[in-house]
Amino acid sequence: RSFLQTVGRVTLGVVVLSGGAFIYVVQRDRHPGQQAAHDPAKKTVVVLGSGWAATSLLKKLDTEYFNVVVISPHNYFLFTPLLPSVSVGTLEPRSIIQPTRYITRHKKRRVEVYEGEARSVDVKNKTVTFVDNSDIKGAVSATTIPYDYLVYAVGAENQTFGIPGVREHSCFLKELPDAEKLRTRLMDCVETAAFKGQEDAEIDRLMHIMVVGGGPTGVEFAGELHDFLVDDLQSWYPELANRLKISLIEALPNVLPVFSKQLIQYTESTFKANKIDILTRTMVKEVKEKTVVVQDESKQLKEIPYGMLVWAAGNTSRQITRDLMAQLPDVQNQRRGLLVDEYLRLLGGDGVFALGDCTATSYAPTAQVASQQGAYIARALEQMAKKEQLEKTLHSLRASSNSKPEEIEAVVKQINKVSKIKPFHYSHQGSLAYIGSEKAVADLPFFNGNLATGGVATFLFWRSAYISNLLSARNRFLVLNDWMKVKLFGRDVSRE
Ligand code: FAD
Ligand code: NAI
């Protein structure tokens, strides 16, 4: 007995000590350390954006070689794969973002971060003009800065195909405020449907949530919405829950076109079991305030009433990207995005690298591609800086009469080594999507083949993959805490 007590005390001591050590390390690590100031002798890298491509670059870039300036309308990084979970309250908005300053806090040289929207890039004079587009503006709210290298990673915006009414009446799911707005709108529909004396037809309209686009965004949102319905609405609004109808509209013959056939079927049958209506080969033609006009397979037009419409029909270029293309009409002629060479150098733009969703390449516009491109450019820039430094050394060695030939030869060898920048190569790690009711689908490269898997085990894999991919211990802690909170207390149904 006494032996067990001793073990118990020892164990407790170890737990307390390691807990204390963990808290000490986290606290010591959470603020910026000593950082060098910008050096006028170094080249300036201006980074536009704070998304997947830009953040991956910032994490990897050695700031010893450069002065780095980041410009983005959001002063944070958003972990987009978990954004659909925010739209129904499974996760809290701040759990999946990370301030950009937090990401750059341990860099050798201080990174300048400006919350601003780049309005134009002058590729001839190598400058960027950006503005403060927030609510509060100071005496200076627009400025122009020069760059030596520009990392252009502004992402894309929602594709509406110019369909009337989309911008005015739809909700989107691309940025953090979109998910917050969705959550509020959803609860507004539910509360309005629950209003005393509400008419039957109006209840059915308000409780009809339409999702346009059967790509991963639309599918994941529909899956999350189904969970909210089953886990929470059914107990808080029992008289309304069975009136909630989720419809997914897709112009193509099936949803999730990038996934394997087996997983498409699995998703479609899971949705059927979850009473999510999939309307394939159906095109939205117009969105009105309370109804949507669709064209079905037989070219028939139908007008369907809805309470909330979520538009997830893919990406298109931002205005600034279209303006940039217009400056280089001879080489930039793809509406889909910017054209780059195999080293991600913008065609026609000296010193400009374009990465991620703003480009038109053979890769899908995904976080995986963008982050690998960011890491690649960080390495490429470092090699270029090292080469420049070595060339200066070589120049002075050659100019000096005291230099030994072996010394010169060694530097030449090093220059040859760093000059070899390989073209960008994408390594696909697989595709994952959550489809609701604690099921996910995954297409994973497996040895030389492909492993297509779906179900509850895949859901656990999905969760662990995303937890490990989150940017920081802080994000992991917050997301795990949210998941536990929802398991214990359910989602919060208050409308903010
Ligand atoms: P973004 O990450 O969009 O970053 C663009 C940045 O540029 C942002 O910080 C923005 O604020 C900033 N910006 C915009 N305009 C300007 C301007 N004028 N000046 C300066 N900065 C500007 N991909 C996956 O691989 N796996 C997934 O599970 C996955 N899930 C997703 C879920 C959702 C809901 C969505 C919408 C996308 C998902 N994606 C996923 C796709 C992925 O998010 C994108 O491919 C990825 O974000 C592209 O990275 P990016 O850096 O090019 O653009
Ligand atoms: P998407 O481009 O993949 O899908 C949009 C869908 O909308 C298309 O299937 C298209 O046919 C359909 N559509 C377009 N116009 C329509 C209309 N008028 N009526 C009906 N249907 C219409 O867009 P999404 O889902 O936003 O994804 C964008 C990118 O982000 C993709 O590369 C995707 O792979 C990636 N992504 C990845 C995720 C994951 O891996 N889990 C999650 C979300 C996005």
Automatic annotation (TrEMBL):
E.C. no: 1.6.5.9
Annotated SUPFAM superfamilies: FAD/NAD(P)-binding domain (SSF51905)
Domain named External alternative NADH-ubiquinone oxidoreductase-like C-terminal: residues: 428-492
Domain of life the protein comes from: Eukaryota
Keyword check for NAD: yes
Xref: InterPro entries: FAD/NAD-bd_sf, FAD/NAD-binding_dom, NDH-2, NDH2-like_C
Keyword Flavoprotein carried by entry: yes
Coiled-coil annotated spans: none
Occurrences of domain FAD/NAD(P)-binding (ranges): 44-374
Molecular function GO labels: NADH dehydrogenase (quinone) (non-electrogenic) activity
Name assigned to this protein: NADH:ubiquinone reductase (non-electrogenic)
Organism: Calocera cornea HHB12733
